Amino acid sequence: MARSGILVVGLDTSTRSASVLAHAVELATALRARLVVVRAVGIPPELPVEALGIEPDALPGTLLGLARRALDEAVAGAPTGIVASVETALGPAWQVICHAASERAADFVVIGAHGHTLLIDRVLGTTASRVVSHAPCSVVVCRERQSD
């Protein structure tokens, strides 16, 4: 396998995102790789205050902009030079992450595990399980470290 030196990191709005990013930074440092940090954006059932009163055609751009600012804040503390890019895209999270990995010939995808029950996971599928099933490369699924 030709190595691109790229790890695609899928971050969401959960509290686990900081931990996922920390794991990705550790892995990238060990592999001397760089991170492409991505967030998928969907049209939420409840719109943020910033989206009220804008033209319907401007809504996706507004939501992408909000997501981009949040990602920029999330990676602000990352070591200098480790983040190759920060990107947002419209679509289901698993598709956005897999597309980013495919476009960049990524060595790995790094994502967080979700806390659903087995029944919900089997019926609906999680983002993590879909990424594992469809990614063009190996996937590292991070779990929050348990305190002893």
Write the layout of secondary structure elements.
Blueprint: E1 6-10, H1 17-31, E2 34-41, H2 59-75, E3 83-90, H3 93-103, E4 108-112, H4 118-124, H5 127-134, E5 138-142
Parallel strand pairs: 1-2, 1-4, 2-3, 4-5
Helix pairs in contact: 3-5
CATH domain class name: Alpha Beta
As for the CATH topology, it is Rossmann fold
CATH evolutionary superfamily: HUPs
* Main pleated sheet: 5 strands, parallel
Q: Say what oligomer this is.
A: single chain
- Distance from first to last alpha carbon: 39 Å
Question: Strand order of the main beta sheet, please?
Answer: 3-2-1-4-5
Care to describe what's here?
The protein is an alpha/beta fold. The chain has one domain (6-142): HUPs (Rossmann fold, 3-Layer(aba) Sandwich). Helix content is 39%, strand content 21%. It has five helices and five strands; from the N terminus they run E-H-E-H-E-H-E-H-H-E. The chain has helices at 17-31, 59-75, 93-103, 118-124, 127-134, and strands at 6-10, 34-41, 83-90, 108-112, 138-142. Strands 3-2-1-4-5 form a five-stranded parallel β-sheet, sandwiched between helices. Helix 1 links the parallel strand 1 and strand 2 (34-41). Helix 3 (93-103) packs parallel to helix 5. The model has no long low-confidence stretch (mean pLDDT 85).
